[in-house]
Design goal:
- The chain has 472 residues and is mainly α.
- The chain folds into two domains: 344 residues, no CATH class; 119 residues, no CATH class.
- It contains 21 helices and four strands.
- A four-stranded mixed beta sheet has the order 1-2-4-3.
- Helix 7 runs parallel beside helix 9, helix 8 packs parallel to helix 10 and helix 9 runs antiparallel to helix 15.
- It is globular.
- It starts with a helix and ends with a strand.
């Protein structure tokens, strides 16, 4: 109960205020709203990810009568538009904590289970799970698949559990393709239970068939060529794996050190369960274009498990003859993690984003085109029904602006994307600043731990509202 209580506090306290609202969260909210409105999980012509993520988010929005909520243009009211999906992400993180405990309890015992689940709940990297990301949606599916595969060895009739495990893993892949790497550890668990290939076949059938819905839908829409092109593009996006490792270390050096130390211990012990979970995904991450810091979400659990086993095993060291010393070390790690994470999540840093959005809503009407990131654009278009709001500011790279006046919500993500095309820079050059919103995030020293996590929260930093005429 202790890990679940801590996880509940960490992930449900101040769900919208920290972290800030990230670019991709707006994308998945827009797609979920589109699915609610049209019943079609495919938005336009971009095939970057399968459909279960937006279907899951849309289902929660439908269950909670989200469409009945009509916010005002005040910042706090606008901020509440992200409350329901962010709480959903928090509940999923609590479920993740429970599943980690049960997985480790079956495989390694209660002591390691307690340590692993508590580390997952308290270490600073866990705040990433509060964001509305596909990786956060698929994580309980992966953990559930592993748990059912382990549990199948204890059941009298193991076939239903194996099939259910395959369904969950298939849904995980139907959420985001990199989840396929988890088949190695799940298939190994299923095979070692009874040494029967027929059991593995039961697992593979739903694992393969469910993700095929994605290309099948593209074929049905006569867009299979687009599907092939976009899947290939997604795999070729460039980003250094070393940059991802650096970002991981900066955000949470404690998890990085003890987690990788635990993986090294697993390698020494030849622990196939941990290694088959960790190594295939890291190889995939190193080889293809899925290289953002939040892509590590899928292996945060295995690193916490490896760290928990490492901490549990040090009680057998010679210098740990006194149990009190062991308890001091364990308590110190957990308390340090809890305090570090708490110092982050108590801050409301996203409000600045909604101050900027509120200003735009109050000062501009349908006669202007509003260029903004998806964080804002779906609210402007779907909630307030503003007409001239492209999906995001990058639309000017492909389509001309049809209104005389243009308003730009220039945030940190816009500035990062300037290299994508000259039109984005030209739009800034031809516009003038009307208002600047300075976020509270700039008040923290992002070079000082635990506020190093702020380095991944700068979309809530300085936001400029620009106004231009004749931008095309």
């Amino acid at each position: 109960m202790i890990p679940l209580f801590i996880s509940g506090f960490i992930h449900l306290w101040n769900p919208v205020g920290y972290p800030d609202i990230f670019f991709d969260e707006g994308i998945y909210m827009r797609r979920a709203i589109n699915f609610l409105d049209t019943g079609n999980p495919q938005e336009d012509y971009l095939y970057d990810h399968p459909y279960f993520g937006q279907i899951a988010i849309a289902s929660i929005l439908a269950i909670t009568n989200y469409s009945d909520f009509h916010p005002s243009s005040e910042p706090e009211s606008l901020q509440s538009l992200y409350m329901t999906p962010r709480i959903f992400m928090g509940l999923l993180a609590i479920l993740d904590t429970f599943l980690i405990y049960k997985i480790v309890e079956i495989k390694y015992g209660k002591n390691s289970a307690f340590l692993s689940a508590t580390l997952f709940a308290v270490l600073p990297f866990t705040w990433i799970l509060k964001r509305i990301l596909l990786d956060s949606v698929l994580l309980p599916l992966v953990l559930g698949s592993i748990f059912l595969a382990l549990y199948s060895s204890k059941a009298r009739q193991n076939a239903p559990w194996i099939i259910s495990s395959g369904i969950l893993l298939g849904l995980a892949v139907f959420t985001k393709i990199p989840a396929f790497t988890m088949i190695f550890v799940v298939a190994w668990i299923v095979y070692t239970n009874r040494k029967k290939l027929s059991d593995v076949l039961l697992l593979l059938i739903p694992f393969v068939l469910i993700p095929l819905i994605w290309p099948a839908n593209a074929i049905m829409l006569d867009q299979f060529d687009l599907w092939q092109k976009d899947v290939l593009w997604q795999s070729q996006r460039s980003n250094s794996i070393f940059g991802v490792l650096e970002s991981f270390f900066v955000v949470d050096p404690l998890m990085f050190i003890i987690g990788f130390s635990g993986i090294c211990l697993a390698a020494i012990r030849r622990d196939k369960f941990l290694l088959l979970w960790f190594i295939p995904f890291v190889i995939f991450l190193s080889s293809f274009g899925y290289k953002q810091y939040f892509h590590w979400i899928m292996i945060i659990p295995v690193m916490c498990i490896a760290a928990g086993i490492l901490l549990e095993s040090i009680c057998n060291f010679k210098f740990m003859k006194k149990k009190s010393l062991y308890l001091v070390i364990i308590s110190g790690v957990l308390i340090f993690g809890f305090i570090s994470t708490s110092l982050l999540i108590i801050n409301d840093i996203s409000l600045n984003q909604f101050n900027a959005l509120s200003y735009v809503l109050k000062n501009y009407d349908d006669d202007v085109t509003i260029l903004a990131s998806p964080v804002y654009s779906w609210i402007l278009y779907d909630v307030f029904e503003r007409e001239n709001v492209p999906k995001d500011y990058s639309s000017i790279l492909f389509y001309p602006i049809t209104t005389e006046k243009t308003v730009i919500i220039e945030d940190a993500h816009y500035r990062i994307d300037l290299k994508r095309g000259s039109q984005l820079q030209d739009a800034l050059t031809k516009s003038e600043i009307k208002q600047i919103f300075e976020g509270t995030v700039v008040n923290f020293d992002s070079n000082m731990y635990p506020y190093t996590s702020i380095q991944n929260n700068f979309e809530a930093s300085e936001i400029k509202i620009r106004e231009g005429i004749g931008i095309h």
